[in-house]
Write a structure and sequence with these properties.
alpha+beta, OB fold (Dihydrolipoamide Acetyltransferase, E2P), BirA Bifunctional Protein, domain 2, Gyrase A, domain 2, five-stranded mixed beta barrel, 17 helices, 24% strand, globular
Length: 589
């Protein structure tokens, strides 16, 4: 055996034992006749002591070690004279008796430390070295534990884990597909699944009752901190259930995982918020409810004062920032610049301060009396020392801008603690969303979502008013997952395709196999999928999902380590009957 113990398990109770360890050299220190080596493996670090006066040759060999050398070490466990309280193994050290260099290492391009000196691109290029860092390793260990607990919970609730195909069929109404040419079927293509949606519905038709899968999914879309071109879903589906059944089961799942991995116990039911309220009070369908600062509508209080900015606006809304009356002009100007950034797009920012003595100051004081301003601050719940921040414009756009301002104020006031978790269900989503460019409705979730029974009569007469039996699990301003009750009746499904602009021929071409299955007794069914990468990053307190994935892509969708995607040989293209337009490709580079 290369080792009898790991570098993280020895304690003072092991003193006097002879052990063999194997791992990487973290650092080396020379102090007189003594050489100290910190040996690291996945489990921890152990200090090794080489004494020149006891074994000169062995000590000389130790002095020749470099960072990240792989060695095997045999020695005796001894109590340290100067203990290190920061290490679990800090009470002991190993008195070296024999050493074998298993492999040498070049000097790594960055330090293998928690706080590395390597930038993101460099660390991704040498990801196999980055994985040796505790900070990255802990995230992947957490991911593994979360997956184990997910499987434990779902197994205890009679879910079966079933794998579905990776090579499938391209379907519309989602993000852009990754496509795979078929050599055996010239001119035809598979698509990599954006989710196992159709297959899990077919499993319900097949009588499987409760299904789950930790599934790889693929979407060819622009990337950001919480997106990767390939990601992982905790994909679930159930038969003979209604919305309440689904919410109860998966609320229980979230509670179980948090308790098992973080020791956090949610004792109260998760709050539920209609989508319309989320947009009205937070300007987001994934509101962060760790703090208040709900939107307050002020339009009726602002009219008739000859302030054209407010008078011409469809919507005027404000938030109360507690304790911010002390903000300086420079700080307010910075907030104004923040909301005017192109990605937010506000034209300006209005403020009203309630001073400590109750007096009121405002950037619009020449248009409104103190009494008028006090009506606004009172409606916003502002107290002495608080400041009200106001934006105006078109309703939907301004609410989104106000959401960004609210989150920024939450950051500035320290209200978005990563160790505080505030879950909720957002329910009653709209069934459809209108696209001005194409002048038609699109499914807000997907074409298989069941409309609210109370709204089915509106499907043709008032399509935009129809609500869906759809729900999202939101935590700390992040959508962890979502799902819906599914349509299981062929007639209603065909009507949905019609409303979404599908001809019967196109619907049959894309979804004929599903509609055929529905003719053979499809049960009522529903499902939900969590984003595993987001789930892990939430529990780990990360801002990006990148470090929850062993080998992630960068923001351009490239694997910096193996330099993919890459060109392929002409022979492969010929086998696939693919001809490249090299001029057009060159113009895109």
């Amino acid at each position: 055996m290369y080792r009898t113990k790991t570098c993280g398990e020895l304690r003072i109770a092991n003193a006097g034992e002879k052990v063999t360890l194997a791992g990487w050299v973290q650092r080396l220190r020379k102090m007189g006749a003594m050489t100290f080596v910190d040996l690291r493996d996945r489990y921890g670090i152990t200090q090794i002591v080489f004494n020149n006066e006891v074994d000169e040759a062995l000590c000389d060999a130790a002095n020749g070690l470099g960072r990240e050398y792989v060695i095997q070490l045999t020695g005796t466990v001894a109590e340290r004279s100067s203990k290190n309280a920061n290490l679990p193994t800090g009470d002991i050290e190993i008195i070296a008796e024999a050493m074998t260099v298993l492999n040498k290492s070049e000097v790594p391009p960055f330090t293998i430390e928690d706080n590395s000196d390597g930038g993101d691109d460099l660390r991704m290029q040498y990801r196999y070295l980055d994985l040796r860092r505790n900070a990255v390793r802990r995230n992947l260990e957490l991911r593994s534990k979360i997956c184990f607990e997910l499987r434990r919970y779902l197994n205890d609730h009679n879910f079966l884990e079933v794998e579905t195909p990776i090579l499938t069929k391209s379907t519309p109404e989602g993000a852009r597909d990754f496509v795979v040419p078929s050599r055996m079927n010239p001119g035809q293509f598979y698509a990599l699944p954006q989710s196992p949606q159709l297959y899990k519905q077919l499993l319900m038709v097949g009588g499987f009752d409760r299904y789950f899968q930790i599934a790889k999914c693929f979407r060819d879309e622009d990337l950001r901190a919480d997106r990767q071109p390939e990601f992982t879903q905790i994909d679930c589906e159930m038969s003979f259930v209604d919305q309440e059944d689904v919410l109860q089961i998966f609320e229980g799942l979230v509670k179980h995982v948090f308790k098992a991995t973080r020791g956090i116990e949610f004792t109260e039911p998760f709050p539920r918020m209609p989508w319309a309220d989320a947009m009205k009070y937070y300007g987001s369908d994934k509101p962060d409810i760790r703090f208040g600062m709900k939107f307050v509508e002020l339009k009726d209080l602002t009219e008739g004062h000859d302030f054209v900015v407010f008078d011409s606006a469809e919507y005027v809304g404000g938030i109360c920032a507690e304790g911010c009356a002390s903000y300086t002009r420079k700080q307010i100007d910075a907030l104004t610049d923040f909301v005017k950034r192109p990605q937010i797009g506000a034209k300006g920012l209005v403020w009203i301060k309630v001073e400590a003595d109750g007096s009121i100051k405002s950037s619009i004081g020449k248009f409104y009396s103190e009494e008028d301003l006090k009506k606004m601050t009172d409606r916003c719940g502002a107290k002495p020392g608080d400041m009200v921040l106001i934006l105006c414009g078109k309703t939907a756009q301004t609410r989104k801008q106000l959401n960004e301002l609210r989150l920024e104020m939450g950051n500035q006031l320290g209200l978005r603690d990563k160790d505080t978790f505030a879950p909720l269900w957002v329910v009653d989503f709209p069934m459809f969303e209108w696209d001005e460019e194409t002048q038609r409705y699109y499914a807000m979730h997907h074409p298989f979502t069941m409309p609210n029974k109370e709204d089915i009569s509106l499907l043709k007469s008032d399509t935009g008013a129809v609500r869906a039996y759809a729900y999202d699990m939101v935590m700390n301003g992040v959508e962890l997952g979502g799902g819906s009750i599914r349509i299981h009746e062929p007639e209603l499904q065909n009507l949905m395709f019609e409303l979404l602009g599908f001809t019967p021929e196109r619907a049959n071409e894309k979804f004929g196999f599903l509609m055929s299955a529905f003719k053979y007794g499809a049960p009522p069914h529903a499902g939900l999928a969590f984003g595993l990468d987001r789930f892990v990053s939430m529990i780990a307190g990360l801002d990006s999902i990148r470090d929850t994935i062993a080998f992630p892509k960068n923001n351009s969708g490239r694997d910096m380590m193996n330099d993919s995607p890459a060109e392929i040989e002409q022979e492969q293209l010929d086998e696939l009957f693919i001809m490249l337009d090299k001029e057009k490709i060159a113009s895109k580079k």
